[in-house]
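Researcher: We're teaching a course module on how sequence relates to structure. For the next exercise, students receive a sequence and then see the predicted structure as tokens, so they can try to spot secondary structure elements on their own. Here is the exercise chain.
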Amino acid sequence: MQNNLFFSARLLGFAGLLPQLVCLAAAFDDGTRYMALSAAFFYAALILSFLGGFWWGLAVASPGAPQWVYGVAIVPSMIAFASGIPWMIGTGWPGPSLGLLGVALVAALWVDVRLNRLGLMPDWMLSLRIILSAGLGAITFALAAL
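Model: And here is the predicted structure for the students to work with:
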């Protein structure tokens, strides 16, 4: 049973990289470039927000979790929201916003490592989180550089 859980988590986790990879491929076509960059931005922001909810859930499930986890858990959503402000106020394409999301996705690993050291995240999950955050962060950086 537990092997099936690990397999499913890994399979679904890796599948979560596919939307950003599709956006990267589509960004090289002038006809789909803007749509691809927009979708990539929103997907990265969505996943970053998801990470905060994931951390919150780990803390809630562990009665001995330190209180700082709850505060840190809201930061990804705030970064995701703030990175969209250039569009909200009508400025040009927020290329740096994609870069900010890439940095935040990779920086999230610091929290994952801390949660693992506190015993709130199992080792297999940390291994998966490293691959997924590094992968999504790298793809998002690549899109920001286009």
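Model: If you want an answer key for the exercise: The two ends are 43 Å apart (CA to CA). The mean pLDDT is 92.
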